[in-house]
Amino acid sequence: MPVFVNNRVIIPDDELEWRFSRSGGPGGQHANKVNTRVELAWNIAESASVPDQERSRLLERLGNVTKVVVSDYSSQYRNRVTAIERLAEKCRAALAPPPKKRRATKPSKGAKRRRVESKRRKSKTKQLRQRPGLDD
């Protein structure tokens, strides 16, 4: 089953390396006999299915080989499906463009004026709440 990352990147089956082993933790007799833990590895550096631009971004962010390990379910099939989804999500996140850097800007004259006016109004309101002094 190929992994659909996006429109340009589809990882074919023959580039994926699967390993199965016994899951750790509790589970009784079934867990001790069945290889339900799934480890999915993909060698990005040797992949022929990824365009060069995407490959360089994946290599930069994920390294030569990316792995996903899943042992969430007691069914090997469900763990395999989850591993494929996690690999696709991991690749989508790595291919996403970096967020734009914030450019520092100065507040406008109007914004400064409104801020100062607001402070004056609040100050006046608080002065009116005070108890009158003896000299007033």
Give the number of helices: 4
Q: What class, by secondary structure content?
A: alpha+beta
Q: Report how far the terminal alpha carbons are from each other.
A: 85 Å
Radius of gyration: 29 Å
Give the class-level CATH name of the domain at 3-95: Alpha Beta
Fold-level CATH name of the domain at 3-95: Double Stranded RNA Binding Domain
Biggest sheet: strands, sense, closure?
A: 3 strands, antiparallel
* CATH arch. level architecture of the domain at 3-95: 2-Layer Sandwich
What proportion of the residues is helical, as a percent range?
Answer: 40-55%
Q: What share of the residues does DSSP label as strand, in percent?
A: 15-25%
Order of helices and strands: EEEHEHEHH
Shape: elongated
Q: In which order are the strands of the major sheet placed?
A: 3-4-5
Query: pLDDT below 50 for ≥5 consecutive residues: which ranges?
Result: none
User: Average pLDDT across residues?
Assistant: 87
Tell me how many strands there are.
5
Topology overview:
Layout: E1 3-4, E2 10-11, E3 16-21, H1 28-33, E4 37-43, H2 52-62, E5 65-70, H3 76-95, H4 109-129
Write up what this structure looks like.
The chain is α+β, with helices and mostly antiparallel strands and 136 residues long. The protein has a domain at 3-95: Double Stranded RNA Binding Domain. 43% of the residues lie in helices and 17% in strands. The longest helix is centred in the C-terminal third of the chain and has 21 residues, at 109-129. The mean pLDDT is 87.
